[in-house]
Each structure stands twice: as structure tokens, then as C-alpha cells.
Amino acid sequence: MNTSIEYALIVNNAYKVFGKEKKNRYWLPWKNKKNGQNEGDGSEKESTVTIAVDHVTFEVKKGEIFGILGPNGGGKSTLIRLIATLLLPDGGQIRVFDHDVVEDPMAAQRMINRVSVEASFFKKLSPMENLLYGARLYGVKGSVIHEQVKSILRRLDIPEKNIGRPMEEMSRGMQQKVAIARALLSSPILLLLDEPTTGLDPRSKREVQSFIRELRDMHDTTILLTTHDMVEADTLCDRIAIMDSGKVVALDKPENLRSLADRSNGHEPTLEDVFLELTGKKLVKETDMPI
Ligand SMILES: Nc1ncnc2c1ncn2[C@@H]1O[C@H](COP(=O)(O)OP(=O)(O)OP(=O)(O)O)[C@@H](O)[C@H]1O
Ligand SMILES: [Mg+2]
Question: Contact 56/79 with Cβ under 8 angstroms?
């Protein structure tokens, strides 16, 4: 395994199972074996086992925008949560800037921040108030809080007059940008974005995408994002891992991935074609309705 600091993230054989087959060892007095009952005595095995992340290996270079593309239930969020130290892996190793997420979760946490699809805010409060609150949570020093928050809000192109408007009056794209901005308060050098643009209209989507690009270009942040959107993955990411049923089924630069698809029909292949060819499935999310 390469442990060089040239890598922001190293995922080596990561494995996560939900509903592990295990005996429930609790004791239920009313279902005791003394009564001659085996059923329901608390020692039966759980029947549903899901291998959410199935021996996944990849590395993300510093400053890279790395995409994880996959259908519902593919294991993307679970993988993000393992990296973010919110879940413990059942196997393998994950290192964030050379800190092992199991052995030294605090050190790994200091390097990362995660923004999930449903950003939680105080909706009645303004972006300024939400960011100030976030800054205090992240322990940003009092003297620099205001300046830092103002500069982040300027970068978001939020007009001065709107800085004090409640979040609930802002577009979802703008809210998502504020969520990403809030994550920046802790100066993460690895930003984990779980579906940053799902459910946004095309314009908001483009705004968030260009903001993500800007982050990488101006602040050298390494970005790991998940998406169902092949166009997004194609245009935004330096490299993409295609994940299905917990496994990485392909990993390469977008242009190289496209070359995996069949060109015999004369069309320039899309990532959708590649996904279909690799998994026999279509990469469509039901909730991704055209707006
Ligand atoms: N806490 C949990 N308990 C049990 N099963 C879980 C849990 N979290 C996820 N799973 C299962 O693990 C698998 C992977 O889920 P995950 O949320 O990682 O997929 P995903 O690729 O993020 O999907 P989506 O695109 O819908 O967000 C699914 O089968 C899911 O049902
Ligand atoms: Mg998910």
C-alpha cells in the first residue's frame, strides 16, 4: 500500500456489512428455553445481510476532484461515511492524509469535512448567522470569525442585501453553496460532498459545480463527490470510480472510461453506455426528474 502524503486519501480493500449475521445474545425471560421454545429466544441469526462496501480500493491525489458514480444503493454514501469516520469499517484500511480513520479518527477528522445531500440549517436564520454559528462550532477564533464569514459569503456571490435574509427564502442551489461554504470554515483539505447537486435545477446545478471547481483551483482543496449524474461526473471530475452493489466496477479518467463502451453503433459513447455495458443496468435515479 502506498502511504505517500502525495495522496489525500487511500482506501485499501475497504469493507462494510450491514445486518451482519450474528447471534443476538440478549436474554428474553418470557422466551426462555426452559419453556421448551427455541424460537424467539434471542439467539436466532439475523437474516438480512447487505455488503454495502465490498473490498473497495482506490487512491485520491492531493488537489484532485474524484467522483464516485453509481445507482441507488451502490454504496456511495456508506463509503463516504467510512472515510468521514462516521462508521467503522468491517475490514480494510482507510487513510486520510496518512491518518488511519480507525486508529486515529481525530487526526483524520481534522483534515475532512462532509456535506450531505440534505444540508441542515437554521432556516429562519440568515446565511451570515448560520455561518457564524458554524464558525463557533468549528472553534474559529472570535477575532477572525466575522472577516472569514464575510469573505466566504462574498465568494458565494450573495448580494450584500441578501446576507441577512432567512435561508428558507433562498434557492436550493444557494442553500447548497452555503452548506459547502460552511464546511470550508474548518479549512478542510479533503472535502466530501455526498450528492452536492441532486435535486437542483440545471442553473443551480451549474452554480454549485463551478463553485466546486473554484474551490479546488483557488484553495487546493481535494474533493471527493458522489453523484448519479453522468454529465456532472464527466465534466467535473478528474477521475471517476463507478460503483455498483458495493464494488468499484471501473475507475479511470472520464475519457478513458468512455472508451470502454461499444462504439459499433457509430455514436460517441457516454458514461451511461459504459455503465450499462459494465453492469447491465441503467444509471437512472427515480427522483432525478427533469425540472
Ligand atoms: N444504516 C444502514 N443499515 C442497514 N443497511 C444500510 C444502512 N445504510 C446503508 N445500507 C444499505 O447499504 C447499501 C448501500 O447504501 P448507500 O446508502 O451507501 O448507497 P448509495 O450509493 O449512497 O445510494 P443512493 O444513491 O440512494 O444514495 C444499500 O443496500 C442500503 O440499503
Ligand atoms: Mg447515498
Answer: yes
Q: Which of 54, 69, 78 to mutate to test the pocket of ligand 1 (most atoms within 8 A of CB)?
A: 78
**Assigned CATH for 7-279:** 3.40.50.300
What is the Å distance from ligand 1's center to 77 Cα? 7
18 lines ligand 1 (CB under 6 A): yes
Q: How far apart are CA 273 and CA 242, in angstroms?
A: 12
Q: So where are the chain's domains?
A: 7-279
pTM comes to 0.81
Residue 190 to residue 78: CA distance in whole angstroms: 17
Give the residue, out of 16, 18, 56, with the most ligand 1 atoms within 8 A of its beta carbon, to mutate for a pocket test: 18
Beta carbons of 254 and 39 less than 8 angstroms apart: no
Which cell numbers hold the place of 125? Answer: 436564520
| 149-173 confidence digits (pLDDT tens) | 777 777 767 666 667 889 888 877 7
Question: Cell 463509503 identifies what position?
Answer: 79
Cell of 269: 459513447
Q: Whose CA is nearest to atom 25 of ligand 1?
A: 72
pLDDT in tens, 50-106: 999 999 999 999 999 999 998 889 999 999 999 999 999 999 999 999 999 999 999
For residues 23 and 31, give the distance between their C-alpha atoms in angstroms, rounded to a whole number. 15
